[in-house]
């Protein structure tokens, strides 16, 4: 069956796991927040929660929490377009928009990541407007895009929990359970990073992963 590990403490980051020489920024973050950083494995895939800026990720793809116009916005969307340059926006204009819950893919422009997968999270109203199902679709559709391109690593931000006001505990549970479910099936994805902006977001996702480990019989906590 699936094998899932949660490591809440480890004195020295594994240099095979963390590109110490290539990514000084993340190394610093890990050294300072290590006890609040969490890592899991499902079959041969890894799921890692880290605190940082997603635009710095060197993975095959990073995910953008975009809006339906795909023409850029605030928060993580603004940061990705600022760091990635105009090529990403040009591709977004050609695509012409994206409905809530779906995902499209563009190049990574000047970013260290090769691709950007743009998905549109639901705006939180009161929970009765299919917000949960739409957020689940976001994560699922991003992973399907990654599989279509045969990508091995992908980094997610916390979709919908900024300007779109989705409650973070609920969002974290939906995000992690959807990703865990996908990693149990056939996929090219070997590593999923969650790049959380700030200690509060990291803590919410950490609590949620801990919770999932306790409830999902296919996940094994060590
Ligand atoms: P949404 O409109 O989907 O809520 P936001 O960009 O407003 O999107 O917020 C989504 C999450 O992304 C928030 O938790 C926010 O703190 C976080 N965020 C903002 N900038 C970055 C960044 N550079 N890297 C990672 N996460 C970020």
Secondary-structure topology with pairs:
Elements: H1 24-33, E1 38-42, E2 45-51, E3 61-66, H2 75-84, H3 86-95, E4 103-107, E5 115-120, H4 131-148, E6 153-156, H5 168-183, E7 191-196, H6 199-215
Parallel strand pairs: 2-7, 3-5, 3-6, 6-7
Antiparallel strand pairs: 1-2, 4-5
Largest beta-sheet details: 7 strands, mixed
- As residue ranges, the low-confidence spans are 6-35
**What's the tally of helices?**
6
**Helices and strands: which structural class?**
alpha/beta
Gyration radius (Cα, Å) is 16 Å
Please provide the count of β strands.
7
Terminal CA distance: 16 Å
Globally, the shape reads globular
| Proportion in helices | 25-40%
| Average pLDDT over all residues | 85
* Major sheet: arrangement of strands: 1-2-7-6-3-5-4
Would you kindly provide a written description of the structure presented here, covering whatever features stand out?
By secondary structure, the protein is an alpha/beta fold. The protein contains 6 helices and 7 strands. It has helices at residues 24-33, 75-84, 86-95, 131-148, 168-183, 199-215, and strands at residues 38-42, 45-51, 61-66, 103-107, 115-120, 153-156, 191-196. β1 (38-42) and β2 form a beta hairpin. α5 packs across α6. 44% of the residues are buried. The structure holds adenosine-5'-diphosphate. Adenosine-5'-diphosphate (ADP) binds at residues 53-55, 65, 75-77, 79, 121, 157-164, 195, 197, 201.
